[in-house]
Design brief:
This protein is an alpha+beta fold and 218 residues long. The protein contains 5 helices and 6 strands, in the order αββαβαααβββ. The radius of gyration is 27 Å and the shape is elongated.
């Protein structure tokens, strides 16, 4: 009898251990996104234009309790109301819309910025980055556009992209730029662009030498 009770006790303990293990796994379930939260970075308003590029800008205090992706995709019933609660009136409609941040034509770079921050500096994302799959959600993507979180993607550009920091100065051969180290303002991104120009003006001879011979590679 005593041996049976001992065996039963061991079974019960084993079941408890297994249950706790399953609970731990469930508690650590991977969640979508990178944990980007503009509110945690001090950004609480969206800004956008409707209909035309000449329309007045609309500024809206975002409701971060609205989580559109909790229901599904943009076309899921009920998502439209959450979209407008989060980003503002008429943001769920088919009307032309322009966020104050970079547009969809460069969305891949914004996505890369969020992925980079998650992998290298999760502390700057502003939200809970634990147990994330590291793939930005569509809500996180709109958040970075709607709030125009320039500091985040500026940090990514400076760290990873050629030309956007002194450490990543781009070597060019351009007759229209001064020779040697220099900078100019990138008109699209509004960032300083760093270059090293190897172009050396050829002597005034005829015929002109090919451009490749004017690039000294220095």
């Amino acid at each position: 009898m005593r041996h049976r009770l001992l065996a039963l006790g061991l079974v019960v303990v084993s079941l408890v251990v297994v249950s706790l293990a399953f609970a731990a796994v469930a508690g650590a379930q991977v969640r979508p996104g990178v944990g980007y939260d503009p509110q945690g970075r001090g950004l609480v308003t969206s800004r956008y234009q409707l209909d035309t590029l000449g329309s007045p800008w609309i500024t809206y205090h975002m409701d971060f309790t609205a989580q559109p992706d909790s229901l599904g995709t943009w076309s899921t019933p009920g998502v439209a109301a959450l979209v407008e609660r989060r980003w503002g009136p008429d943001t769920s409609t088919n009307r032309f819309k322009r966020w104050q941040g970079p547009g969809n034509e460069v969305a891949s770079l914004l996505r890369d910025a969020l992925v980079w921050a998650y992998a290298n500096h999760p502390e700057i994302l502003g939200g809970d980055t634990s147990n994330r799959d590291g793939v930005p959600t569509w809500v996180e993507m709109i958040d970075i556009q709607a709030t125009n979180d320039t500091q985040l993607w500026h940090a990514f550009f400076a760290a990873e992209l050629p030309g956007y920091s002194e450490e990543h100065r781009l070597t060019v051969c351009d007759a229209n730029l001064p020779a040697g180290d220099g900078t100019y303002m990138d008109p699209f991104w509004g960032l300083e662009y760093y270059y090293h120009n190897t172009y050396v003006a050829p002597p005034p001879v005829s015929p002109q030498v090919p451009l490749s011979l004017s690039c000294n590679g220095g």
